Structure formats: C-alpha cells, structure tokens
User: Fold these one by one.
Assistant:
Number 1:
Amino acid sequence: MINLHQVSKKFSQFQAIKSVTLTIPKGEIHGIIGASGAGKSTLLRLMNLLENPDVGEVEVNGQRLTALNNQALREARKSIGMIFQHFNLVANKTVHDNVAASLELAGYPKKERRSRVAECLRFVGLEGEMGKYPAQLSGGQKQRVAIARALANNPQVLLCDEPTSSLDPHTTAEILEVLASINERFGVTIVIVSHELEVIKSICKRVTVMAAGEIHDTVTIEPTGIEKSDDRPEYFIEQLTGNGGIGHA
Ligand SMILES: Nc1ncnc2c1ncn2[C@@H]1O[C@H](COP(=O)(O)OP(=O)(O)OP(=O)(O)O)[C@@H](O)[C@H]1O
Ligand SMILES: [Mg+2]
C-alpha cells in the first residue's frame, strides 16, 4: 500500500506538486496520466523518496518513509523497485551482472545470487541472454532485464515511469503482460506513469489524472473505446470512464 498525505514539492520557485493526497491499495495496478509537465514523474519519485517532499507524509508498505533515517530508508527501498523509459541498464555489464548488481547492492547472500538472477531472468523470458550486453538487445529485451533487476529483491511495490514509451505497440503489449503477471503472481502493487491512454486502460484498475501538479481526479477504468488524442484532464477522464468523470474511485 502507498499513502501520500498532503505532499508538496517545489523546484526553486516552481511548485511542481501541490498538496497531493493519494492512497493506492496493496496489489493494485494504478495508473498516473496527464499532460507533459503535469508532475507525473515527480509524484512517482516521491513514492520512494527519490524526491523529498517539502511537506507531507509518504508511507509505503506500512512504513513512513519521511520519518526514516538514511540507513532505514535504504532498507525500505529494497522493497520498492523502479523501472524507466530508457531502461537505465549499465552498458558495460552483462545481462546477468546488471541483475546481480542490484542483489549485491541490497546485500543478498553471494552464494545465492546466481540462482536468483537466473530465476528472475527466466521469469521475464531472458534466461538464454545472460551473457549478452545491453547493446546486443532489443528495446523490449532491455526493459525485461530492467524488470528482472527490479524484481530481484522481491519488491512489494514496483514504480514504472513510462515503461513502454520507447517501445513499439507489439513490444508494449508484451511488457504490459509481464507487468500484469508480476502483479498477479506475486501480488506486487504497481504504479505506472504513462501519457498513453491505451497503456493505462489495458492494464490499470484505477487511474489518477494529474494536471499542473495536482490530482484532477482518481477514477476507476471502464472498458470503452478510445477516440482522438487530446491532453486535457477532462478528456482523460472521459476516455477512461466513458462518462466524463462519474464513477469516481
Ligand atoms: N529536478 C527538477 N528541477 C527543476 N524543475 C523540475 C525538476 N523536475 C521536474 N521539474 C519540473 O516540474 C514539473 C513536473 O515535472 P515532471 O517531470 O514530474 O512532469 P511529467 O508529468 O512527468 O512530464 P513528462 O510527461 O514530460 O515526463 C515540470 O514543469 C518540470 O519542468
Ligand atoms: Mg515524466
């Protein structure tokens, strides 16, 4: 479970997040959508304290992150995985070593690392690519490595910032399937930031629509078709719920 309580964040004089309160229940796949600059990535980064709020409380997995010292925060972050649009793999490490590095960082017992790496790569369908370097992989394969790396430490929460925005539609669908299976198999709470309605609609249960640093609304997704493109918050609500915002979560 993720709880943000009246969280605000300023960058110099710019108020990027304005007193946001949001609860995401354990096991949910939650979307965050909104126009460019609305504060989606900042909100996501507040959930693992990559951004420190100026005011407000952040609670994840029953722990108030904003009350922890650095060491306790490092410990708490082991159960919060993150993946990014551009994968953020280490170029001069093999697939195996990219995943192993996250285990090493978390102090995972050395003897058990190899088998854990293999297990995670098997889960994302890449057990045959362990010795390759990121440059030898397709975009979808790179994102699978990033997912395996995030999965290695058994996270309870997975934060995804535009995880499919660099991928073609077919590969996007495959990656979303991997994320959905992580949610289903391991009960991992997943938060997905995306500006793509189709992505949010195909995988999320509820979605928060951000506009200018605020939550415009949080709605439950209804399976209706998606029409033309627009980036007004009202448009997102309409397309996600089929009714312009009735049926609030
Ligand atoms: N480190 C930073 N320093 C200064 N301003 C920042 C910083 N990070 C974000 N901002 C500003 O805060 C606002 C929200 O940024 P954020 O990256 O959260 O938006 P976003 O909704 O993720 O946009 P996009 O869809 O383009 O990724 C933007 O106006 C951005 O310029
Ligand atoms: Mg962003």
Number 2:
Amino acid sequence: MEKKRSYYITKHGSARTAFQLREEEIPQPRAGHIRVEVEGFGINFADIMARKGLYQDAPPTPCVVGYESVGRTMDDCTIGNERIEAGTRVLAFSRFGGYSTHVLADDRAVQPIPEEMPLGEALALAVQYCTAYHCAEERVSVFPEDHVLVQAAAGGVGTALVQLLKRKGCTIYGTAGSEEKLKYIQEQGVHVPINYRKQDFTKVVKEKLGKRGLDIIFDSLGGKSFSDGFNALGKGGRIVGFGASEQVGGGIQVLNTLKFAANFGLFSPIQLLLHSKAMIGVNMLHIADDRPEVLSRTMKAVVDLWKNGEIKPVVSAEFPADQLAEAHEFVEGRKSMGKVAVRW
Ligand SMILES: NC(=O)c1ccc[n+]([C@@H]2O[C@H](COP(=O)([O-])OP(=O)(O)OC[C@H]3O[C@@H](n4cnc5c(N)ncnc54)[C@H](OP(=O)(O)O)[C@@H]3O)[C@@H](O)[C@H]2O)c1
C-alpha cells in the first residue's frame, strides 16, 4: 500500500546530516482540512534557520518543516464557497509538514491553481508572494512619489516585493550581495541597485535623497540593517521588518545571535512621534494562526495577480527531492535569486 514519505529534520546543523526520509501512513481525511497528494514543495529561508536550530517557531526535532506544497486534492471538498473535485490542482500552505508526499492543510489555506502554472512559480506564491503582498499592499500605502528600499531584493520575498512595487510607479532601491544579483534586480525593476557588500546603503540613500530620506523600507535582515534603515527614513517614513537573515552567520552562533539582538538598538515611541516614523512587524505564520482569513485573502490575491499577468515569480532552481540537502545549501550559500523548488 502507498505510504506517505517525508523528510524529517532529525539533527540540527549541516544540510548533509540533518535530514532523514521516513515512511508513514497517509493521513486520514479530517474536517476543515484538505488532503493533498504533492507534486513538489518550496524552500524558504525560515527552513534553513529551522534546520540550524535558529527558528523559535519550528517544532522540536524530529520534525518536518516546509510551508508550501503544490499537488492534487485527494477528496471532493469545498474551498470558500466553491465545490472542488478530487484531483484538482492546488497550492497549499501548511504550518510545517510541507516536505512530504501527502499533506493535510487547513481548508482556508488552499487555493486552486491553473494546470499550466509552473510548479516553482506556484510555490513562490504561497509564502514569499503572500508575505510581500501583505507587507506592501495591506500594511503600508505606496505612492508613485515614494522612494522605497527593499533589502535582499534578489531573494524570494525580495523579488516579489520589487514586482509588486513596480506596479505602484515608485522609485525602488534594492540591495543585494553580488554583481550578478544587482543585474537581476535591475531587470526586475529596481532603479537604484546597491551592492551592500561594497557600499553602505545609508550613504547611497543620503547621496541621492539628502535630508529627505526614504519613505518606506522592507527589511528582511534585522539587526544593524534595521536600525540603520530606521535612521535613513525621512519624516513620515515607515519600516516594515519581517526577517532576521543577518542572524545567520559563521563562527559561534550564540555570539552572532547576541550581536544581532544588540544591533537592533533601542527605540522609544517618542522617536516615532517626533519624526513621524512607523515600525511595522510582520510574521505571516502567526497571522495565519490567529487570522486565517488574512492568509486566504492574500493567497487568492496573488493567484489572481498571476492569472492577470501582473506578477511573474522567478524560479532560481528546481531540485529532485533526493537532493534536498543540495537545495538547502543553494539557498544558505546565497546562490538563489527568486524561488527554489523541490519536486517529488
Ligand atoms: N515574517 C514573515 O512572515 C516572513 C515570511 C517569509 C520570509 N521571511 C523572511 O524574509 C527573508 C527572505 O526570505 P526568503 O525565503 O525570500 O529568502 P531569500 O531572500 O530568497 O534568501 C535569503 C537571501 O538573504 C540574503 N542574506 C542576507 N544575510 C544572509 C545570511 N546571513 N545568510 C544567508 N543569506 C543572507 C542573501 O541575499 P544576498 O546574497 O543578496 O545578501 C540570500 O540570498 C528571510 O529573513 C525570511 O526569514 C519572513
């Protein structure tokens, strides 16, 4: 009889030693959930952090991580008000458990997708585009005259943000860590590409905008990048913080984490009042837990934007499932631009 196969993280650390393939029973149908037989799943940076033991929301080991899968529904079901037949191709968000051949997803976190939507593009929509959409469309208003910075703009969420911002007509600043990535973000629509390994982004912004400063920053790095970004905002500026990539580094991890936390700096609401600035935090997992309608709404919105041709996720690489370790190393080694997909 067919079994469910899952890649478990059994030991925190290197991608080569962390994973173990295990077989289990295929989940039984459950009220309020949809069973999906999976074609492929996506890699997110949070998975790298979970594998390294740096992601506080991740379950204890042994655990299966992964938030997004594309596959076919195993039973007739209802999504929203729509009746869906077994065998319909869907995109599913799951709270972990995504690195599996079969997932059981909350029915509010599943969206039907067109047959012709490529696997990697569909996977990019679940976490990376939903996060970008919630940040750039729902948490701030973006105007054509705005100057907006996207940190790590060549990444999955970074690419999504750039594509969503391009529709607003604003001036986009983007940081990335190599010349190849700078070329890529320029092609995506970044007007002012900044190599943050060679240039201090605050100096580039100062040269371009003087005292005026930036209107909006989308920050996935955290730490010093967040506090420097806050200082680079002009009056009325907003910084949306949604990541902590800066925490991941070589050397002794506990020291990295302490340095990272200290680099955030201390902020007082008085600073916000005096300078008319705002700080906004986003954690889509917690939002999905407590406000599932936000996830449903954003998933539907990004699938519709894809159908209308307004967004076009970039798939950096697709790996077969037995090369999961290589897929993790590719993302951790900062080689990816856009989405990384894994196919069963
Ligand atoms: N809050 C939420 O709900 C939410 C949801 C999704 C993602 N996120 C966060 O958003 C960020 C981007 O996620 P993603 O999945 O789209 O990943 P990604 O941006 O595709 O990959 C990470 C990129 O971050 C940059 N980076 C900066 N510091 C790094 C470091 N110490 N180690 C490795 N890479 C580093 C690298 O680009 P360069 O080479 O250009 O530096 C790398 O390519 C992550 O921090 C993630 O945790 C948060």
